[in-house]
Amino acid sequence: MRIVFVRHCEPDYTIDSLTPRGWEEASLLADRVSKWNVDDFYMSPLGRAKDTAKVSLDRRAELGLNHEASVLPWLKEFYYDLKYPDTNEPCMCWDHMPSYFSGNKDLHDKDRWYDTDLMRSGNIRAEYEAVTYAFDELLKGYGYVRRSDGTYEVTSHNDKTIVMFCHFGVTALLTGHMTGVAPTCLWQNFFMAPSSVTIIGSEEREEGTASFRVQVFGDTAHLTSKNESVSSSGYFAEVLSI
């Protein structure tokens, strides 16, 4: 199966919707989504993701492809406040200065990152486990049951494609969960532009066993192919649009 994560278009966080530029991105994104063969759509309960999804679903409806997107509460942005252990200064779970992150190697470990003093200040392990449990329950319905080693037992093979309109933080978290990478490494070192597309597919190289592999991460071809620049929202430098 294939799981397509779509980050919401350029956000106006003050109203939990899109900026004027974001609405333009949503239209170009909809041109792309309208060509996909999709079995099921899901979306975050937050306004910026729902608005992004609506433009794509409306475009598909115009073509006679009528779909409803199910709202998944746990697909909301993974946004939790923390406090630095040494200073008690507030911070956010997926935004740290490079010197702090690089100097704390446990934050790079897929099995220990959520048990660091920093993450315990926000009860992140419980939040992480709640999201990943709900996600795995969804995959179970498609015939993929997670094992303790991180692979998935295939109880019913399928070639379905599902699309999730959501956010960078939760996409990185679920990508790490599926691929065995600490999400902190993805949060800190990877960028996913507004409206970008991430594709993760299952591989069944051993009978009855599936693993997931990233095919595309943060792709913005629907913008660059139209000579539109890529938004740097969430980035700390100018994004190269090529």
Overall description:
- With about 240 residues, this protein is α/β, with parallel strands linked by helices.
- The chain has a single domain, classed as Phosphoglycerate mutase-like (Rossmann fold), CATH 3.40.50.1240.
- The protein has eight helices and twelve strands.
- The strands form three sheets. The protein has an eight-stranded mixed sheet. Strands 2-3 form a two-stranded antiparallel ribbon. Strands 6-7 form a two-stranded antiparallel sheet.
- Strand 6 (about 80-85) and strand 7 (about 90) form a beta hairpin.
- Helix 1 (about 20-35) packs across helix 2 (about 45-60) and helix 6 crosses helix 7 (about 185-190).
- It is globular.
- It starts with a strand and ends in an 18-residue tail after the last helix.
- The relative contact order is 0.19.
- The mean pLDDT is about 95.
